């Protein structure tokens, strides 16, 4: 359990927030807001340098001013969003620009929040940054996933809250948005009975009904005969992998989860 807590903390600590503003005093204030919520600031005051700066970096959130030299904030947001890996990057506009409302239509749908410098203090900015990063950690409402047509639907059965956060965060950062989380094997079986998922991530040690039994029951359903089920377990002992596979799991990932191995397997089994 402690390892899960520490992994969650590390994921959060490793979150990179890009902030771009040509006014250095403001840029330093934004950096302070990012630091205050325990995140890593990547700051740049020359907008023309940004695309090179983030070329090889993982970015979790961007904060962009509008009133800057070429490219201005509108143009920079378009440039960032044109990169496939930043297509889902949440962006906060933080601006002191006058009469910007008409120009917002140019970037409609490309940003999540807009804060005006004259009416937003540093604490409000920090709260907004914190809330945006926390979105990665919360699965969407079950109803919205169930109603959605198309896309990859993933069922996560996991009783530890920190493990739920870690897995949800990794999935959402890699553009897997349709995630349903349950806390025991019995609920996993019920959820699988009510809908069809494209991938199941199954913790093996859960209350009420463990993952071994839940996997066996799900495999008995005709529609889940070939659906990939990845077993997650903290018991990295000899024979664990075989036991998971015998119960019907397609593959096995030991805890603590290695981020790269986890996402590579998710992409493989969802043909991404």
Topology:
Layout: H1 2-13, E1 16-20, H2 24-36, E2 40-44, H3 50-53, E3 61-64, H4 73-82, E4 91-95, E5 113-116, H5 122-134, H6 142-147, E6 154-157, H7 161-173, E7 179-182, H8 185-194, E8 199-203, H9 211-219, E9 229-233, H10 240-247, E10 251-254, H11 259-269
Parallel strand pairs: 1-2, 1-3, 3-4, 4-5, 6-7, 6-8, 8-9, 9-10
Instruction: Report strand order across the widest sheet.
Output: 2-1-3-4-5
Unreliable segments (pLDDT under 50, ≥5 consecutive)?
Answer: none
* Residues in helix, %: 40-55%
The CATH class assignment of the largest domain is Alpha Beta
Proportion of β residues?
15-25%
Description:
With 272 residues, the protein is α/β, with parallel strands linked by helices. It is built from 11 helices and 10 strands. Helix 1 runs parallel beside helix 7. The protein starts with a helix and ends with a helix.
Please describe the structure with a list of short key phrases separated by commas or semicolons.
11 helices, alpha/beta, 272 residues, 2 domains, Rossmann fold, 5-stranded parallel beta sheet
What can be said about this structure in brief?
The chain has 11 helices and 10 strands.
């Amino acid at each position: 359990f402690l390892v899960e807590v520490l992994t969650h903390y590390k994921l959060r600590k490793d979150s990179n927030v890009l902030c771009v503003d040509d006014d250095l005093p403001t840029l330093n204030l934004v950096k302070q807001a990012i630091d205050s919520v325990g995140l890593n600031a990547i700051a740049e005051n020359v907008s023309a340098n940004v695309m090179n700066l983030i070329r090889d970096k993982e970015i979790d959130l961007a904060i962009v001013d509008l009133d800057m030299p070429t490219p201005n904030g509108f143009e920079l947001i378009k440039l960032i969003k044109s990169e496939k890996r930043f297509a889902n990057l949440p962006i906060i506009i933080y601006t002191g620009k006058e009469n910007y409302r008409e120009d917002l239509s140019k970037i409609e749908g490309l940003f999540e929040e807009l804060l005006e410098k004259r009416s937003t203090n540093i604490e409000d900015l920090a709260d907004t940054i914190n809330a945006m990063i926390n979105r990665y950690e919360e699965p969407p409402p079950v109803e919205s996933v169930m109603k959605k047509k198309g896309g990859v639907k993933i069922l996560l059965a996991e009783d530890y809250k920190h493990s739920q956060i870690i897995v949800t965060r990794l999935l959402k950062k890699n553009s897997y948005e349709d995630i349903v989380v349950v806390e025991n094997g019995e609920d996993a079986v019920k959820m699988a009975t009510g809908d069809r998922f494209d991938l199941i991530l199954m913790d093996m040690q859960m209350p009420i009904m463990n993952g071994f039994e839940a996997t066996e029951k799900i495999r008995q359903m005709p529609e889940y005969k070939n659906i990939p089920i990845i077993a997650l377990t903290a018991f990295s002992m000899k024979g664990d992998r075989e036991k998971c596979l015998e119960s019907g799991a397609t593959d096995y990932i030991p805890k603590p989860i290695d981020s790269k191995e986890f996402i590579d397997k998710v992409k493989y089994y969802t043909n991404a």
